[in-house]
TrEMBL record:
Family stated for the protein in its record: Belongs to the ABC transporter superfamily.
Domain of life per record: Bacteria
Residue span, ABC transporter domain: 2-234
Annotated GO MF terms: ATP binding; ATP hydrolysis activity; branched-chain amino acid transmembrane transporter activity
GO biological processes: L-amino acid transport
PANTHER family per the UniProt record, alphabetical: HIGH-AFFINITY BRANCHED-CHAIN AMINO ACID TRANSPORT ATP-BINDING PROTEIN LIVF
Organism encoding this protein: Acidisoma silvae
Record protein name field: ABC transporter ATP-binding protein
Biological classification of the source: Bacteria, Pseudomonadati, Pseudomonadota, Alphaproteobacteria, Acetobacterales
Keywords associated with the record: Amino-acid transport, ATP-binding, Nucleotide-binding, Transport
InterPro entries membership: AAA+_ATPase, ABC_transporter-like_ATP-bd, ABC_transporter-like_CS, BCAA_Transport_ATP-bd_LivF, P-loop_NTPase
Length: 239
């Protein structure tokens, strides 16, 4: 479905990715692990056309989307829940959610999708008219996820969805990711908390200084001593 092929990206003269190759199959949750500054967010931005690789390709559903305009990539079926959520703080929850459907014209279906998303995130129903800026971190994360779903994506890219959330919300966000995935949406997810990420991932990759150094199923990765030493030993589990 999504195939990142040997990409090299740069910020000016500084190379971030060294021939990174990664695959997300339909209906998969793929987790991308890696320390600070390893290039995880830049990889997400490359998928979304925000950063253009100097070499390599990004293929989605058989089409070459490398460096295409972000709006065109979203229309093809990729949505994003960016790092730190990026909501419009001054707009209401409802307005933020509807922004996710900005490229759609099917008003009736948009209204149905909004209803469906509110069943998924019941907390948001009472808050539709409030400004997004007054919501808690966990509620804002739900708005960001709901906004992504409003474009009816086949794939959602999530950059650190549980960052800064209380343990209760961390568990809620993770089970919501599984619910969304069970409805047929593939997920590419960056998560610093490896033990949480591997609990729900079908497949996982480890990025280190811009190189993929390991890949395995989520379960195999969780059992890998190298991963336990490097990531699981040090991470705090929310549970
Ligand atoms: N807009 C930019 N201009 C120049 N350098 C950048 C830019 N964005 C990121 N970088 C650099 O590229 C490298 C990779 O950054 P990136 O944000 O992709 O890492 P990350 O794995 O997401 O890190 P973190 O875990 O801290 O979120 C870092 O060295 C960072 O300083
Ligand atoms: Mg990042």
């Amino acid at each position: 479905m999504l195939s990142i092929q040997s990409i090299r990206t740069f910020y000016g003269p500084v190379q971030v990715h060294h021939d990174v190759t990664l695959e997300v199959r339909p209906r998969q949750i793929v987790s991308l692990l890696g320390g600070n500054a390893s290039g995880k967010s830049t990889l997400m931005k490359t998928v979304l056309g925000i950063v253009k690789p100097r070499q390599g390709r990004v293929m989605f559903d058989g089409a070459d989307i490398t460096g295409r305009p972000t709006a065109a990539i979203i229309r093809r079926g990729i949505a994003s829940v960016p790092e730190s959520r990026r909501l419009f703080q001054g707009l209401t929850v409802r307005e933020n959610l509807l922004l996710g459907a900005y490229s759609r014209q099917d008003t009736q279906a948009i209204a149905e999708d909004l209803d469906r998303i509110l069943t998924l995130f019941p907390r948001l129903s009472q808050r539709l008219r409030q400004r997004a800026g007054v919501l808690s971190g966990g509620e804002q994360q739900m708005v960001a996820m709901g906004r992504a779903l409003m474009s009816r994506p086949k794939l959602i890219c999530m950059d650190e969805p549980t960052m800064g959330l209380s343990p209760l919300f961390v568990d809620q966000v993770l089970s919501l990711i599984q619910t969304i995935n069970a409805e047929g949406v593939a997920v590419l997810m960056v998560e610093q908390n490896a033990s949480l990420a591997l609990r729900i991932a079908h497949h996982a990759y480890v990025l280190q200084s811009g190189r993929i150094v390991l890949q395995a199923t989520g379960a195999a990765m969780a059992a890998d001593p190298r991963i336990q030493d490097a990531y699981l030993g040090r991470t705090e589990t929310a549970a």
